[in-house]
Amino acid sequence: MELRALKYFQSVYELGSLSAAARACFISQPSITSAIQQLESSLNVSLFVRHARGVLATSAADKLYPLAKEMSDNAKSISHLFSDSPKAVPLRLGIMRSLGAQRMSFLLKNISEKINNLEITLVEPEDPCDARVVLAQSVTSSESFVPIWQDNYQLAAPKNWPIAKKTMIDVSDLEGIAFINRAPCDALNKLTNVMNNASIRFQPRANIKTIEYAWQLVCAGIGAALLPDWQEIIDAEELSLIPIKNIDLIKHIGLAFKTNKEAQPLIIALKQACNSTSKSNNDIQ
Prior knowledge:
Layout: H1 3-15, H2 18-25, H3 29-43, E1 48-51, E2 54-57, H4 59-81, E3 89-95, H5 101-114, E4 118-123, E5 131-135, E6 143-158, E7 178-182, H6 186-197, E8 203-208, H7 211-219, E9 225-228, H8 231-234, E10 239-242, E11 250-258, H9 265-284
Parallel strand pairs: 3-4, 3-5, 7-8
Antiparallel strand pairs: 1-2, 5-11, 6-9, 6-10, 6-11
Helix pairs in contact: 1-2, 1-3, 1-4, 2-3, 5-9
């Protein structure tokens, strides 16, 4: 069993496509196909099932993947150990605000695992950069988009408030509720517009900019806030997250990059890291 074949297998598994894996590994698709077939033959299992949009991993592939990844990582470690000082790979990555430190750290970890000798610089999404992590609605016509997360905004209320006992909130329930006003926030703007149309006054108790501060103020009992369903917010013992009925408060966040740079190795590696992050997030959910 060749390490190269396991590397090709790992790429197909992560990308869900033979052609995409071939591009990422800088070889022809027939070479990828041949390597997978040889691997299947040596293990006497079927690793992938073809479908119209790519391939689907079998249960055997699910078992093999962590072992193949470990071997690949060990091979990289050995190579780094005995190599001369490698040349850094610079990456300027634009990061939107209110992304969340926990999941941003997880994404950066996945990126660093995909790109050897990475030297990363985090900048504002509007600054010159190789790629940026932004809302889907911020993507320009010259950019492609790889989705990573879906944020479902809900009402976060202190645990001891009567409204926190509800499993679903109607807009009418927000009458007289003190809010943590976070700006800018498109989801909150949408909610306040619905409240205004229902003649319900939005009553701000505090004005801030970040989700992290809003979350802490809710836990302190200062007011309610419209917050995304991040795992760390869901796990907070001092608050409850309750969905609001009949309002679409969903935001899609992902990687945006210039479409004409899609075939560049740096962008291919970034896409792989984003796909791994998205898959891990879905597995957790």
